[in-house]
Known about the structure:
Elements: H1 12-15, E1 32-34, H2 45-54, H3 68-78, E2 85-88, H4 90-102, E3 119-124, H5 129-137, E4 140-145, H6 155-161, E5 169-173, H7 185-194, E6 198-202, H8 214-219, E7 223-228, E8 241-244, H9 247-256, H10 264-274, H11 277-300, E9 304-305, E10 312-316, H12 322-331, E11 334-336, E12 348-351, H13 355-370
Parallel strand pairs: 1-11, 3-4, 3-5, 5-6, 6-7
Antiparallel strand pairs: 2-8, 7-8, 9-10, 10-12
Bound molecules: pyridoxal-5'-phosphate.
Pyridoxal-5'-phosphate is lined by residues 37, 90-92, 127, 173, 177, 202, 204, 228, 230, 236, 241.
Amino acid sequence: xxxxxxxxxxxxxxxxxxxxxxxxxxxxxxxxxxxxxxxxxxxxxxxxxxxxxxxxxxxxxxxxxxxxxxxxxxxxxxxxxxxxxxxxxxxxxxxxxxxxxxxxxxxxxxxxxxxxxxxxxxxxxxxxxxxxxxxxxxxxxxxxxxxxxxxxxxxxxxxxxxxxxxxxxxxxxxxxxxxxxxxxxxxxxxxxxxxxxxxxxxxxxxxxxxxxxxxxxxxxxxxxxxxxxxxxxxxxxxxxxxxxxxxxxxxxxxxxxxxxxxxxxxxxxxxxxxxxxxxxxxxxxxxxxxxxxxxxxxxxxxxxxxxxxxxxxxxxxxxxxxxxxxxxxxxxxxxxxxxxxxxxxxxxxxxxxxxxxxxxxxxxxxxxxxx
Length: 371
Ligand SMILES: Cc1ncc(COP(=O)(O)O)c(C=O)c1O
């Protein structure tokens, strides 16, 4: 950087940041998108009409600053009060608030013995936004390697791996992404109970799983559960997520958020979604059935398919290296996700689409196996 470059105005932490890389949102309509774990089914018809009905002169007004009606409805759903819930502009915003509220920037530590106060701890691989948010806040990344089957190690093994029970903030993606592996409530509770700092269960994909751990957020004051309307509720476009936990922690997050962090149409859409849950519950079953069928078909073709409790599959392909598969499938009109990080570079992550989309994918895979 030359001394005259405008980049000199940018804080070093921002200049040096390896920003999060979102999955591609292609301009080409012909591509079938199986790369960002979006739901293949549209929102319920009544949700679409609720959004349409809200598009009128009211757009000139600010939305409810705390999304109060949505918090009230979610509180009924989860058996708590609205002050246990904070709504975010997607759960990504919630995660950013968590880091800012609970982890100290490293520069504010007085000595090495305080290191846990600045640690953001997470299993790796998991959601690749966690290290980015940590870096941006000037906190300390504390990744703990998952074993090859992506299971949560027992307490002894965790200690050997450097697990810090006093880390200021621990983020657990459950079910795990990108592996799809699910975790039981009891193993998550065992992990939570040992933790002295705040622990967040990021349940972005939990509606496709066998179990959820929401009750831990209501039982333990240092446990929070984050959820999103993006994946299971087909609302990526609207950006609505939330976190549930002790009112004093939720109150701290509320102090940090933007005044009107959740846009009005997003609030309308999420409220209408909660009035139409049976529509979505049918879709979860459909996605899980398709997931099972595609997993079997790919296994028969020699792919190693990891068990999944999400709306995607992590697969180790056969015949060609994973990055080559990624390129070959793109040429055939399918966008899947390939990550370059060493732990997962042998895998492809394939979101579950409609049955027709997945059938077309299987045909393309069969053809490429012969080339
Ligand atoms: C594990 C995990 N958490 C959170 C999110 C963020 O979801 P959103 O910001 O759309 O609510 C994602 C999105 O990919 C995710 O994979």
